[in-house]
Amino acid sequence: MMTPGFARHRRVWPSAAAVAAVRGWSGSQLHRTPADDRNGRDGRSAWMDDGRRNGRGDSSSSVFALSSGGCRAGVAVLRVSGPHAAAALLRMTGARALPRPRHAALRRIVNPLSGEALDRGLVLWFPGPNSFTGEDSCEFQVHGGPAVVSAVLRALGEIEGLRPAEAGDFTKRAFQNGRLELTEVEGLGDLIHAETEAQRRQALRQMEGDLGRLYSAWSDRLKQCLAHVEAYIDFSEDDNIEDGVLQRVEAEVLRLSAEVSAHLRDGRQGERLRSGLQVVIAGPTNAGKSSLLNALCQRPAAIVSPIAGTTRDVVETALDLAGYPIVLSDTAGLRPSLDPVEQEGIRRARQRLRQADIAVVVLDATEVARGSRDLEATLLARAQSILDDGDFATPATPALVPLPPEEGGQASEHRECIVVLNKVDLLQRDAAEARIGQRAMPGVCAVSCQTEEGLDEFLRLLKEKVEKMCGDPLSGNASLTQARHRTLLGGCAAALSDFLATSGPAMDAVLGAEHLRSAMRQLGRITGRVGAEDILDVIFRDFCIGK
Ligand SMILES: Nc1nc2c(ncn2[C@@H]2O[C@H](COP(=O)(O)OP(=O)(O)OP(=O)(O)O)[C@@H](O)[C@H]2O)c(=O)[nH]1
Ligand SMILES: [K+]
Ligand SMILES: [Mg+2]
């Protein structure tokens, strides 16, 4: 996988404001390690301890949790779900009758054992199956102080049949009770973690079932095809079947196959938007790469100095660029070096550049201009020498270039490049240099990190490219957002191709039917209609406790 999976811990950074459109984006996706992937966020292995690994919930027990955030707040929301929810609500309020379903009622909240008053708050009763989880549920809205919350949690824990929920327990129950499809579960998880506008839009759309509906519609069409092929197998010898059935199936599978392929050929828009675009700053030493990073995030994130070779490690910062999430990386300056530490820095820089969705090549404008008769040629040669390793398009040929295959790339995966000529404040105004100053070359931004001249124009260009690569999450079909979707859809597309390869006048209908069944299975696994057990822990792992 090209982009690392990402840990969900919060890292809220101060706002950036090089232009109003840029804000600090907390970049929760950064730095997920393989260990994080295996374990829950807090190192606990999720779902290990009570035999629910298979995705079968212990529906005989009820779970409770604080569903609002853990910090001090005016109101805290605690939820209970499961068969003991009614009893919990009655005992926690000392009442004989449940409140009207889905209507808030003001009640004293008491400790069920001692009868001691804990707080006064709103309670809500959500009888199953029309609740979020599909089970009987109730909610306590109490004052949000830590002592109140822990007293209510303690009291809930004393009620028989109730146990504390684990991350994702409530959503898992909703899935198991058929209230949500798997893609909707994923959308909900993404919505909870969304940090920029575009991410929120995409997640909401997926949570509301747009992606699942697309796949279900394909699955229904496949089912119809399969029914016709099976009818042909069963009845064709008796001549009870109308002519041309298989041809019509073939035509439909051809259409489906084209639609699935087009959906897969989306330049990884949805996945990029979900995880944040990788924007990598690279270039020779002392060009002002770290200065650019600092100017964009409006804080001294990377060390700037006149000493060439200052930056060694990759310095990352997350930004919200007009609603789109980007992860901006500053890298070591590229130059021949004998220093093993610098060599390692350069290796890391090149590696990061290969993972970039957008490369920002920073060059020192005074160096490019110095003594060069053919400004464009010099510029291109310098930019290209930086990019060569990363297999990018040059700025003069801004054609979109496919990722190398080892990055899991397909021809539709686009990478882009922007050349930044920095330090224009130092330019003498001779002819060549004036041309840089006049910004005469497309795809090339002339800036000064010192005076911030030209940075708005750079951000405008960057935003344009980011928007193009992520797309508008609300237009067209919903985008697939996860590698899981891509893998399964790839399997579906392959099975459809297999079907088409066997079709024709001498079609083996039995084999063809098997290919269609295989294609349907792959689709079904995306929405969770088929065999979801083995992926459930992966999907629910990133949820919060209480959701
Ligand atoms: N006059 C002027 N100086 C700049 C500008 N941008 C950066 N500098 C200076 O150029 C020097 C190098 O800047 P850095 O940001 O450290 O450059 P770098 O590309 O990160 O350098 P390495 O990490 O060593 O590869 C510093 O002394 C900066 O103050 C600019 O726009 N104008
Ligand atoms: K430097
Ligand atoms: Mg640097």
Nutshell version of this structure?
With 547 residues, the protein is an alpha/beta fold.
Provide a descriptive summary of the structure in words.
41% of the residues lie in helices and 16% in strands. With 547 residues, it is an alpha/beta fold. It folds into 3 domains: 13-177, Probable tRNA modification gtpase trme, domain 1 (Gyrase A, domain 2, 2-Layer Sandwich), CATH 3.30.1360; 197-266 and 480-527, Up-down Bundle (Four Helix Bundle (Hemerythrin (Met), subunit A)); 270-470, Rossmann fold (3-Layer(aba) Sandwich), CATH 3.40.50.300. Strands 1, 8, 9, 10, 11, 12, 13 and 14 form an 8-stranded mixed β-sheet that branches. The chain has a 6-stranded mixed β-sheet with strand order 4-5-6-3-2-7. Helix 5 packs antiparallel against helix 6 (197-207), helix 7 (210-235) runs antiparallel to helix 8 and helix 16 packs antiparallel against helix 17 (509-527). The chain starts with 21 loop residues before the first strand and ends in a 7-residue tail after the last helix. Bound molecules: guanosine-5'-triphosphate (GTP), potassium ion and magnesium ion. Guanosine-5'-triphosphate binds next to helix 10.
